[in-house]
Structures are given as structure tokens and as C-alpha cells.
UniProtKB/TrEMBL annotation:
GO terms for biological process: respiratory electron transport chain; tricarboxylic acid cycle. This is succinate dehydrogenase. InterPro entries: 2Fe-2S_ferredoxin-like_sf, 4Fe4S_Fe-S-bd, 4Fe4S_Fe_S_CS, Beta-grasp_dom_sf, Helical_ferredxn, SDH/FRD_Iron-Sulfur, Succ_DH/fum_Rdtase_Fe-S, Succ_DH/fum_Rdtase_N. It comes from the Bacteria. Residues 148-176 form the 4Fe-4S ferredoxin-type domain. It comes from Terribacillus aidingensis. The keyword Iron-sulfur applies. Its cofactor is [4Fe-4S] cluster; [2Fe-2S] cluster; [3Fe-4S] cluster. GO terms for molecular function: 2 iron, 2 sulfur cluster binding; 3 iron, 4 sulfur cluster binding; 4 iron, 4 sulfur cluster binding; electron transfer activity; metal ion binding; succinate dehydrogenase (quinone) activity.
């Protein structure tokens, strides 16, 4: 049923009081307004925490920040698909709307999860450009325009975790770091200054839980809210790690 043909919006929310408690479902009905998104529906429940049975309940707990698909904080599973709730318009969703937390990450409460493992993976691959910030280094080296254009696309990653949620190889039985950190290795290795640590990043990808754990399901590129070419990055890093392994074997410092 389309939301525009009714006065209320029905949401079935998977809730959990804390990491150790059992999850349960709770149904809510909120007044329909034109141009609503999932966040505005959750805000309505927070304003008036009463479920569909008319019983008082606790406000739903979830993460959000920018409300314009930039910060990546409001990721959740909406009608079975991991995505940003700020960009999920009620009019375009089948009702009842089912909201669940991402299952890849440990639950904090209700729809909020702990994405620390993703940030730890970014640390593992050194997803930054290390420079000495104690003095002015002057203007940095310029990048060729063609490289800058595709590097900019990779820089759009907002660490939302949606690609990790969609990836079947990221689960509690695997230590696979996932698509986003792999793509960030490609980004920082392409930077003129970041390339100084190229070998270290590739070594990290060649280690446990690295690129060898990718099953090439290509789910990640389909769900990325920023349209980042994640599978292209994975393919490029496959090639780069193969070259790095040859360099390691022959003890060569030759640049390829």
C-alpha cells in the first residue's frame, strides 16, 4: 500500500535494549506527511513514544548526524536492504516498513551499532597520508587531472558500513576487512605523498583478512550510496598485491 493513500505510516522496528538482551519487534504508526523520510518517522516516534497498540514505550535509539547523506551515521537495514535512512523516502518504500540494525556490526541498542571494526580496519591499512605537521611543508605535489577525477570518487566514502553489511564475506566467522578499506588503500596509494607508504598498505591487504578473503559477490558496489566503484578498486588492488608479492619474492625495490 502506498503511503500517500493513507493517513499513517506503519513501521515494524527490530529493537534490543542492550547488547546482551534478546531482540524483539515493535510496531508503530505515525502520521503521514508529504516528503517524509525514515528519519522523520523515527523522530515522530521519539516525540511521542507510543506503539501501535497504544501503549507507552521507550523512544527508539538510532544514530544520525548530517541528515543529508554525508556522514554515514544513519545506516540501517530498511525493508531488507542496507542503506541510509535519511535518504529513504517513505513514499518510495513498501509498507509496512521494516527497520533493522545492520547485522555485520555488534549491536549497541535498537538500530544503533558499533562500527569500530571498520575503523580498526582503516587503521590497519593506514588510510591516511602521514606527514609532519609541525611546520609548513608548502604546496604539495600535483596530481594529474585524470587520476584526480577517479581518486575524488573514492574519497566520497563516508564509512557508513553499508558495503560491509551487504558483503557475504564480512561476518562473525571471518576477519575480512571488507570493500571500503580496500578502496581506501587504492585512494591513498594514488596520492603523490601517500604513495611513500604504498608497500605497507599492500602488505596489510596481503595479510590475514585482507583482499584474499573477497569472494567477488559484487554486492558492495550495488548498495554503495555514493556509487563508489568498489569492485574496480578491489580488482586494482588484486593486481597491486600480486605485483607486491613478486617484489617481495625477488627482493626488488623496482617501481611498477
Amino acid at each position: 500500500m502506498e503511503a500517500t493513500k493513507q493517513e499513517t505510516v506503519t513501521l515494524i522496528v527490530t529493537r534490543q535494549n542492550d547488547p546482551s538482551s534478546a531482540p524483539y519487534e515493535e510496531t508503530f504508526e505515525v502520521p503521514y506527511r508529504e516528503n517524509m523520510n525514515v528519519i522523520s518517522a523515527l523522530m515522530e516516534i521519539r516525540r511521542n513514544p507510543v506503539n501501535a497498540e497504544g501503549k507507552d514505550t521507550t523512544p527508539i535509539y538510532w544514530d544520525m548526524n548530517c541528515l543529508e547523506e554525508v556522514c554515514g551515521a544513519c545506516s540501517m537495514v530498511i525493508n531488507g536492504e542496507p542503506r541510509q535512512s535519511c535518504a529513504a523516502l517513505i513514499d518510495k518504500l513498501e509498507q509496512p516498513i521494516r527497520l533493522e540494525p545492520m547485522s555485520t556490526f555488534p549491536i549497541v541498542r535498537d538500530l544503533a551499532v558499533d562500527r569500530s571494526q571498520m575503523f580498526d580496519s582503516l587503521k590497519k591499512v593506514k588510510a591516511w597520508v602521514p606527514i609532519d605537521g609541525t611546520y609548513d611543508l608548502g604546496p604539495g605535489p600535483r596530481m594529474p587531472e585524470k587520476k584526480r577525477q577517479w581518486a575524488y570518487e573514492l574519497s566520497k566514502c563516508m564509512t557508513c558500513g553499508v558495503c560491509l553489511e551487504a558483503c557475504p564475506n564480512v561476518n562473525d566467522k571471518s576477519d575480512f576487512i571488507g570493500p571500503a578499506p580496500i578502496s581506501q588503500v587504492r585512494l591513498f596509494n594514488s596520492h603523490p605523498t601517500g604513495a611513500m607508504n604504498k608497500g605497507e598498505r599492500l602488505e596489510a591487504l596481503m595479510g590475514e583478512g585482507g583482499i584474499g578473503s573477497c569472494g567477488n559477490s559484487q554486492n558492495c558496489v550495488q548498495v554503495c550510496p555514493k556509487g563508489i566503484p568498489l569492485t574496480t578498486s578491489i580488482a586494482e588492488m588484486n593486481r597491486a598485491t600480486n605485483i607486491q608479492s613478486f617484489k617481495n619474492f625477488f627482493g626488488s625495490d623496482t617501481n611498477y
